[in-house]
């Protein structure tokens, strides 16, 4: 009972920008014909990305990764990575405009490409300033996400990316931040919060706040508290993007409480 009361009390502390009388319409992705095609952690294709007017440097990285042809398939019930109604086609045009995004789709549907490419498209690197923060629940996932940022920023040499998680000496991380502050930070909530509390990681310039596998972090009260404390250290005016393979009806309202203006946020929820 005590834990339930603590949970209820904490819910009251969460930032909530929702208007009670206004509800944003859901943008529901239609299902398209196709088979999944992927390489590495992010499965994407270069054909069609030109429609998004991405930076030439990003398109070059996409081609270098071997994604030159759109997938074609016969299963009409499964979304493919790059069909016109895919996760990427639904989300990326909104994300690169700086809109808030809640994206639910099965693993392997290209969710990571949405925030990696949209962040790299928007970011204007400034020396000594963290512009984007990506949180996830495990060190393995943090490492994978960092690798994808590095892979697709190959021709954007001014953009620096770093990953921070437990199990590594915090002094090592502090020295890294002191010597060369990254523009994109990826990490687990516990380590990111420790660095921010000690003033080694500055978050006052963050413009993009991203949660990958957000349900895993927000369903755990302790981890949710860490995420919320980190969130409060970032500016009010920022883009918030959340991604997950599963979003329960109970956790969706919690996600929306992190959005600055849910009425204008873009929400893609794929139901399978």
From TrEMBL:
<dbReference type="InterPro" id="IPR014001">
    <property type="entry name" value="Helicase_ATP-bd"/>
</dbReference>
<feature type="domain" description="Helicase ATP-binding">
    <location>
        <begin position="92"/>
        <end position="265"/>
    </location>
</feature>
<protein>
    <submittedName>
        <fullName>DEAD-box ATP-dependent RNA helicase 15</fullName>
    </submittedName>
</protein>
<dbReference type="Pfam" id="PF00270">
    <property type="entry name" value="DEAD"/>
</dbReference>
<feature type="compositionally biased region" description="Acidic residues">
    <location>
        <begin position="9"/>
        <end position="23"/>
    </location>
</feature>
<keyword id="KW-0378">Hydrolase</keyword>
<dbReference type="GO" id="GO:0016787">
    <property type="term" value="F:hydrolase activity"/>
</dbReference>
<dbReference type="GO" id="GO:0005524">
    <property type="term" value="F:ATP binding"/>
</dbReference>
<keyword id="KW-0347">Helicase</keyword>
<dbReference type="GO" id="GO:0003676">
    <property type="term" value="F:nucleic acid binding"/>
</dbReference>
<keyword id="KW-0547">Nucleotide-binding</keyword>
<feature type="region of interest" description="Disordered">
    <location>
        <begin position="1"/>
        <end position="35"/>
    </location>
</feature>
<dbReference type="GO" id="GO:0004386">
    <property type="term" value="F:helicase activity"/>
</dbReference>
<keyword id="KW-0067">ATP-binding</keyword>
<dbReference type="InterPro" id="IPR050079">
    <property type="entry name" value="DEAD_box_RNA_helicase"/>
</dbReference>
<dbReference type="InterPro" id="IPR011545">
    <property type="entry name" value="DEAD/DEAH_box_helicase_dom"/>
</dbReference>
<dbReference type="InterPro" id="IPR027417">
    <property type="entry name" value="P-loop_NTPase"/>
</dbReference>
């Amino acid at each position: 009972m005590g834990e339930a009361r603590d949970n209820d009390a904490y819910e009251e502390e969460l930032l909530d920008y929702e208007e009670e009388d206004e509800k944003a319409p859901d943008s529901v992705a239609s299902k398209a014909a196709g088979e999944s095609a992927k390489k590495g952690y992010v499965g994407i294709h270069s054909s069609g990305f030109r429609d998004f007017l991405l930076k030439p440097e990003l398109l070059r990285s996409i081609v270098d990764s071997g994604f030159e042809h759109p997938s074609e398939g016969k299963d009409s019930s499964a979304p493919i990575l790059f069909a016109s109604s895919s996760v990427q086609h639904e989300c990326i045009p909104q994300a690169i405009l700086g809109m808030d995004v809640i994206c639910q789709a099965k693993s392997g549907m290209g969710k990571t490409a949405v925030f990696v490419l949209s962040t790299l498209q928007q970011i204007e690197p400034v020396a000594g300033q963290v512009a984007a923060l990506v949180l996830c629940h495990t060190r393995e996932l943090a490492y994978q996400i960092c690798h994808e940022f590095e892979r697709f920023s190959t021709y954007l040499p001014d953009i620096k990316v770093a990953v921070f998680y437990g199990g590594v000496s915090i002094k090592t991380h502090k020295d890294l931040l002191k010597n060369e502050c990254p523009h994109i930070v990826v990490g687990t909530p516990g380590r990111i919060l420790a660095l921010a509390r000690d003033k080694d990681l500055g978050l006052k310039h963050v413009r993009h706040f991203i949660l990958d596998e957000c349900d895993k972090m927000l369903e755990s009260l302790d981890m949710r508290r860490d995420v919320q404390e980190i969130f409060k250290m970032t500016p009010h005016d920022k883009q918030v993007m959340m991604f997950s393979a599963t979003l329960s009806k109970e956790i969706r309202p919690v996600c929306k409480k992190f959005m600055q203006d849910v009425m204008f946020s873009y929400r893609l929820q794929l139901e399978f």
